């Protein structure tokens, strides 16, 4: 197994850092390897598989995870897939003091030290996935880091340190929101439904089942359905579809993603169903909506 060293990948001992977008084409396999530095990975778009500690995990757009020094891992992209990622490599000494202070924040501690963070649930393994809106914000931060590292204008090292800390604080906040959205300790019925509604909004890409959500509330499916509609005015499916279409509208305006990619981003596995649902709720097709907004 190859162990990648700092001197091969990082800029220098004085500034142990590297950042760039990286594309894995269809059929690409990255053999098991480890490295002396921290590798932060953000999935910009596409899909594939990541093997960590001998367990293979599905990668999705919006996944963010960290590979700690010395940990073996590998990537595999299917024959009909491709994967675009942002790789941020650094030695912890680069922002040691900032990391030490951030470790006092429990949500940051959980994010930084538990690896990896996949959307697909794995036993005893927390996950971090960014919503479409969060993805747009976070990619802008990473774009700024890559631009600073590429151009190397005056003060770029200070800017990168600052932006890197900003990235981790942002992810810490996202992680905390995720945790709070499912913390249903003895809430009132109305509070429980409101929290479940927020949980649905933050996990639009997941194929949430009524049985799963009902269990989260400690209710039977029939009881949950009745209480959810009584409190929101909509059925579980109606509410989820409305939130998905709202997220799709943002992506149609703010990105140049293709329709099939947007459909998958907001939880529709079938693009034709996405088109029908969008038209049903808005009175127009997704392409017409995008055209009207430009």
Automatic annotation (TrEMBL):
Superkingdom per UniProt: Bacteria
Pfam families linked: AraC_binding, HTH_18
Keywords: DNA-binding, Transcription, Transcription regulation
Keyword field contains 4Fe-4S: no
PROSITE patterns (alphabetical): HTH_ARAC_FAMILY_1, HTH_ARAC_FAMILY_2
Domain HTH araC/xylS-type, residue spans: 194-292
UniProt entry tagged with the keyword Ribonucleoprotein: no
Designated name of the protein: Helix-turn-helix domain-containing protein
UniProt source species: Paenibacillus anseongense
Lineage, broadest ranks: Bacteria, Bacillati, Bacillota, Bacilli, Bacillales
